[in-house]
Amino acid sequence: MVYKTRLENRGFDQARPMEAKVGVIKRADGSAFFRFGHTWAYAAVYGPRNLYPKFLQDPSKGILRCNYNMMPFSSVGERVRPGGSRRSKEISMVTQKALLPVLDLDEFPNSVIDVFIELPETEAGSRCAGITAAAMALADAGLRMKDLVAAVSVGRVDDKIVVDLDYSEESYEGGPVADIPVAVMPNSGKITLLQMDGIISPEQLSKAIGMAKATCVKIAEVQRAALKEKYKASENNGQ
Amino acid sequence: MISLFEKGIRLDGRKLLEYRGPISIQRGFTKTAEGSAKVTLGETEVIVGVKMEVGAPYPDSPGDGTIMVGAELLPLSNPQFELGPPGIQAIELARIVDRGIRESKALDFKKLCIREGELVWIVSIDVCSLNDAGNLFDASSFGALAALQDTVLPKLDGDKVNYKDKTKNHLVLEALPISVTVCKIGNHLFVDPSTEEEEFIDARLTVASLENGDLCALQKGGETPLTAEEIQAMITIGIEQGKMLRKLLLEKR
């Protein structure tokens, strides 16, 4: 079997249409919105702020807490029960690990930085959209960062290596599939998230990771443009 | 704040009986819902999504479908909101939205029946706060109506919902129960509180009214008692302000 064409004539190395915006939640210290096609995420950052209860505090450095949550109506199928699942807890954890390497938390002893990721609509690749939005929100909150973090899922659909799998590809039945969410620090090229479901050869994996890195550089351009856009807008308002 | 109220103005320059603008409605906001809307009241933003599910009817009303309203005060929308199961604030919010829709008979539960005693539609309405700049009560009730107006029934494959295939049938709203929360600080009555004002509210009354001026739900909040005259005045304000919101729901389609 051969996987020939993608929906909407997308190239195999092409992500779905992206859209990004910063400063979308006024109450937050930093916020952003990021979309891959019909998968989109809001992220809000609160902090650094005092961490309670006190026994959770670390006097040597600040703590980063991340929470990934799908809104109840964000899935094509049945309603998602609110309150978190094992899946969402794991994604929250890997999100935190994906973002930690770019932050310097030594500056904020006894404090917490909270990152809340909410998904109003999902169609595969939601953890990557969440991480990408969260990195922009951290930058918008004015936190010092060593690099951005951009994420995309890559993988294998039958004989093809593809970027940014959609739902039809994740659930492709004509051949083997591998789904590999990857987060990259775009300047250094280092990888901060790597997971995989499926069957793939080491050679194919290496090619897929190369494509993820190239795509994350493009995503970082979208992130930077959105961050610049906000500051341009605030300059024009004389702020 | 009160000294300004004496002059009939508020911290943000509004009059006492003036909603924040812009009030916007974006229907079809999320495609995974069978109906959805993002609404804004000034800087307050909520997203409401409707999922259509099927299930067995309640034994005491075998010919009736039903609604379920959930509200999530997302910690992303306000620094004071915390993760975890819904607190009393979120529960009260969901109950107020529920009551307005249920008691006004905005949805005819009989029309949500698929097979009497066996299978009915369950309309799940979920409210998610995106930015809480005050008055989530009115924004949520308003958003729920806009999302219901947007709702299209999915197809049924036997007794299962086929979420990928939609019919052309919109849910029919028999009424538009508009909720207006009238607040009291000192001797002053006002609408559409900001988060700063919400902290100082002595009492509030959420008034859900219909087009003909009938009331369909009430909820008093706050720790200060109200006189019957005050309640009367608040109801009058609620009905009057509701007309403006109703017009927006009918216009912006």
CATH topology assignment of chain B: Ribosomal Protein S5, domain 2
| Rg on CA atoms of chain B, Å | 19 Å
Q: List the secondary-structure elements of chain A in sequence, H or E.
A: EEEEHEHEEHEEEH
Q: What is the CATH first-level class name of chain B?
A: Alpha Beta
CATH architecture of chain B: 2-Layer Sandwich
User: Main β-sheet of chain A: number of strands, strand sense, barrel status?
Assistant: 5 strands, mixed
State the CATH class of chain A: Alpha Beta
Beta-strand content estimate of chain B = 35-45%
| Structural class computed from helices and strand pairing of chain A | alpha+beta
Please name the CATH topology of chain A: Ribosomal Protein S5, domain 2
Strands of chain B, count: 12
What is the number of E strands of chain A? 10
Largest sheet of chain B: 6 strands, mixed
Quick check: average pLDDT of chain B?
Answer: 95
Q: Strands, helices and their partners?
A:
The complex is a heterodimer of chains A (239) and B (253).
Chain A: E1 18-22, E2 30-36, E3 39-50, E4 63-70, H1 86-99, E5 111-121, H2 126-140, E6 150-157, E7 160-163, H3 167-170, E8 177-185, E9 190-194, E10 197-198, H4 202-236
Parallel strand pairs in A: 4-5
Antiparallel strand pairs in A: 1-2, 2-3, 3-5, 6-7, 6-8, 8-9, 8-10
Helix pairs in contact in A: 1-2, 2-4
Chain B: H1 2-6, E1 23-27, E2 35-41, E3 44-55, E4 66-72, H2 88-103, E5 113-115, E6 119-131, H3 136-149, E7 152-157, E8 160-170, E9 178-185, E10 188-191, H4 195-198, E11 203-209, E12 215-222, H5 228-251
Parallel strand pairs in B: 4-6
Antiparallel strand pairs in B: 1-2, 2-3, 3-6, 5-6, 7-8, 9-10, 9-11, 11-12
Helix pairs in contact in B: 2-3
